[in-house]
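#lab-general

N.A. 3:47 PM
ok so I finally got the sequence cleaned up, no stray characters, all 313 residues accounted for. can someone with queue access submit it? mine expired

B.Y. 3:52 PM
send it over

N.A. 3:53 PM
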Amino acid sequence: MNNTTVEDFEAMLSDADGCSNDVIPSFYEYISAMTPMLMGLTALGGFLFLLTVFIYYRNLNNLVRRTPKEFLARTLLLCAIYQIVSAVAFVSILVPRAILLCDTVAHLTFAFCTYQLIGLFIDYTAGETNYIKQANRDAYSLRTPPCCCCCCCLHARPPTKSTFLLVRTLVLQFPIVQGVLFITLNVLYVENYKLYSQVFFYFLPFIITSILLCIWGLNVIVRMMAPCFPELRIRPKYFALQFVLMMTKIQPAIGSVIVANMDFPCWYPLTPSLYKNIIVQVVILTQMVILSVWSQKLYRSPSKSTMKLSVLS
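B.Y. 4:20 PM
back already:
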């Protein structure tokens, strides 16, 4: 009598088809095996992507008309990051195997925008020299997260040119270091996926350290400038950008943990990794719509009218 169970039979089929939690199908395999649910999720992802583009396009003329010329380029770029992240999220739904490349584009876009953000904050104050003249004597402090415990012996002091040089260095290293690391990972992923899987965890300490140093530099300059210019909404603008990193990095990690602890059906090419990727990207697309609307409201200040009033006063 054959004692083979249904679970054993499914496992044999899974092994025969090469199905596992980590297998990601190609674009052709994904399109060929689409179910009504996957079609609905893909259509929803496309709608959310187009919605973020529409929100940006609708507010583009308003931003150009209201924003002072010296802030315009950086403002438009910082408002456009949500559309870029939405675009790569939708591409990763359509082409599942492009997920690492899409994640790299989103991550490096965020890294580039972090430096643009501190540049915009410094522009708001009419330059470093002007800010130093009017800043409080205890405005500069390194005792900020995530390195507040390491600098507990350092006291607040007046900002100087070296202050801004340190902050710029902490933030500028982020796009440079992350660019080198992620390009290397992409080459390994394409050339030898097995080697990529083995060495990825050795890259993590460098990736995490670089992120923490960047966040430290951003926190220093935000805490230094936000109290002096409450009308510029510096802190909310910082959080609006930081949420991009949290959503594109933390959520996929949570999704991987959930998939690893759930019993998904595994009929190649509809693998657990495919479902996890689609669900996570749809969630990210939804959040980008919300952040896009929020950013349009945040960057209404400063406007040309408020700048004229401040000059008159």
